[in-house]
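Hey, sorry to bother you again with one of my protein questions. I've been staring at a protein lately and its backbone has me curious. I owe you a coffee for this, so here goes:
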Amino acid sequence: MLIINYNLMKQAIILFLLLISLSISAQDIIQWRGIDRTGIYTEKGLLKSWPKSGPQLLWHFDNLGEGHSSVAITNDKIYITGLKEGKGQLFVLDMNGKLLNKIPYGPEWDTSYNGSRGTVSISDGKLYIYSGLGTLTCFDEKSLKILWQKNIVDDFKGSNIRWGVNESPLIIGEKIIITPGGKVNNVVALDKNTGNIIWACPGEGDLPAYCSPLYISELEVPLIATMTGKHILGIDAKTGEKLWSYPYENNRGIHPVTPIYDGKDMILFTGGYNKGAYMFRLKNGGRSIEKVWEQPKLQTQHGGMVKIGNYVYAGGDFRSNRYWYCVDWNTGEVKWKTDEISVGAVIADGNNLMYCYTEKGKMVLVNPNPQKFEIISKFNITLGTEQHWAHPVIHKGVLYVRHGDTLMAYDIKK
């Protein structure tokens, strides 16, 4: 005789629904370079080519002020920052581009290439903004009240850098990871609820280098991979212990590109200013590394990279190496390079198509063919001001492009 325990069944159903809810919620938070900092937006059902004039412009918002930050999205709200009215401002828009709120978070970088830098980070109903002047602000997502605020540079005896610090804080569980620089508190983990310090890693005592770090969770020792002014670092995410470092220096101390990890044991770092790409193999559960290859031609300045299949695609340095590259992930061999379009930021979608947003203001849809550079469609970004540096974002069939004081939303659904 079959006996059914309805209480256990009810509890199992509730747990199942809760897990689904948490999974959907976690995947609905769009932050720096997507959900996992890879620049890969897994959405499918998107256009595989665009009309000659580009996809339909759904709306644009024209009063962001100066800045280069990308959009963050959660709970059907868009968060983006800009320098306006002499202060850094957090803008909250609905999904139709209507302004819901505008909140100042304090002084913002206004010395050169003015405006906001790091993209808003989001976790458990809280928003985190790191200003170019080194102030980290935590907002309550619903009320937009400031819960805590710290000047990371001053409080941890760090140093600001030539064009203002630029980092999208990394959140791991209850920790928020940020890079003050300096000899003692080179990289720190703070309690995301209070701002109190959990651990400090001295690293190699370098200045910060504009790098938004990457978290690798599946290793025996989960680690944080990042770049400081003169080194590549691997840090134990739990304790803050420096696991390994490798010398990596260019003539500016600028390394704004988040590394790429292949989900197995290979991790790729790159920078501009005549410094190329280094591939490492993670060993001993993440406790050490060995260099696999070096490719001096892959000199990405700040446009990011994407890995599609066994190849990595990226634009070169804005100043001295103005080519797009396809490089074999396993060997570092350059499969092709092209200057058919100017360099810029790159992301990809679930169709494995690349979106290249060039410094000259073109949005280009590219088939990532390792045999040749293959443009599918392109159109001009005609709205906005100053540099075309913000990384584009894809969310629910919409392509978001920020150009200075203007945010545009394009319909790219089939």
About this structure: Residues 6-27 form the longest helix (22 residues). The radius of gyration is 21 Å. The chain has a mean pLDDT of 92. The chain is about 5% helix and 40% strand.
